[in-house]
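Workshop exercise sheet. Pairs work together: one partner reads the sequence aloud, the other fills in the structure field after running the prediction. Swap roles for the next sheet.
Pair: D.N. / O.F.
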Amino acid sequence: MANIRAYNSAFSMTSFGAKVNNTINRGSGPYVFKISGQIRHWLGSLCPPSNERPRFLQMIRTYERPSGGTLGAIISDGDPMCHQYDIVIRHKDDRPQRISKLHKLYMLLQYPLIFPYGDSGWSPELYLRVPDDSRDKRLTVNMYYSYLLMIDTILQRGDTEGRDIGKRTFLPSSFTGGPRYMYKHYQDALAICRVHGVPQYFITFTCNVKWPEIERYMSGFLSLKPQDRPDIIARVFQMKAIICCHYFCFRLITDVYTIEFQKRGLPHCHLLPWVTPMYKIKDVSEVDRYISAQIPDPSTDPHLYKIVTDLMIHDPCGLLRPTSPCMSSGTCSKSFPKPYQQETSFDNKGHVHYKRQIDGFTIIKGDVKLDNGFVVPYNRTLSLHFMAHINVEYCGWSMLIKYLFKYISKGVDRVHYTVTKIQDGTDPSQQHLSRLNEIQNFLDGCFICPHEASWRIFIFYIHDRIPAVQTLAVHLENMQNITFRDNDHLDNVATNMYNRRTTLTEWLHNTRNDTSGRHLRYIDYLTEYSWRSQSRSWV
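Structure field:
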């Protein structure tokens, strides 16, 4: 498309011609292209000169005899009188005829890529098909070609039947796990951030199949492994995830969490907590109070040492093991091992670099000696209580928040593609694209592991936030969205005043009739009023 004009010029049968007035450029101002009189178009010779190679239309040859309705042209090759006409055509059984840019055949000669089959273009003889009492029946050039290009786009998309035109099937935001569902929660998180500021931590809590609750249950089924009972794993993790969202060594104001499932199927929770001002990290010296990235002392804290060495150590990678799954282009995709730090610090961009002493404790994992450079940051209280992989990161930097909100609401990794069969004798580039059906695309491209299937069967939340967020409608007058069933009569839908009520229309109604809420902006109205969806009113 970037070179569409060049391609069209290569096949065009006419060239732009006009009387250019250059007197306006006699000065120091910018160049101006000024035309005097009427625009005209002219044809060059169909045959190249003897000493030149064919160019443009000269390269197109026709070897068959003309059929009925074929158009031809009378070419003026250097005729001094050629400026007196625009385009001259010749019907098979008629005399040569001079045409202007208003002729219905003008556009097909000038833009052959739009009219590859020689269809007639716009002409003043075309009128709108409107009621007889309509005053304006003119069909403008813009109307005609806008309609033509729209129809061409519809046909290329595969909408060949009348019931398909203008129809698009999409997944609404009410469908759990769909793209609009996740984007809605992303916007909800931003709304919470507007009121309460940025969250303090970013926590990833991963399920541990060696939890006592799971092992105690599986001890009654010696022939089974934990992965054989995804329902038990889902139920235990759901209870622990809910507890984790409220179990902190500091007091919470609000939180947002999302449940995802790993490639192996194990669930994990992404959590963003907002804490009270008393427990916020105010300077770098307070980071070590809540987050550690070092191997604990096995003699003074053996329980935490076992949890960290079993669950919070990144597998050997880099020069120690170049074939590790996390390696990409010769480096670890998670940037391990981390550089050593004698003290925790912030850089100029606000990122935190945790304390990782070079002379700390070490462990042997897979016959490889690992030190503090391979420790995943953790919180001591959470690790001791839940005995799981719980990565805790400080994120009190405002520029990082938008990325984190998108990360926790991105949904699952997915690739959508279509394999179609090319019909015999059909150009692959001319295959029509099927019309968009987001529901079918979601079903065809959806992979659900057993753990996620169990989670959905139990109707557990995959996303939640505290407090709840009310979406406020924004629209022009009489342009609100209306939802109706396919068997509803459109007259009843359009005349039902109840359907027209939105949070915006009722806010305007309340502020006009109730003076007690006039001091509140629309976005702050929820601080003193609540929206009742059943009655569609503010109370």
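Discussion prompt: Confidence is low (pLDDT under 50) at residues 62-66, 69-85, 430-434. What would you look at next?
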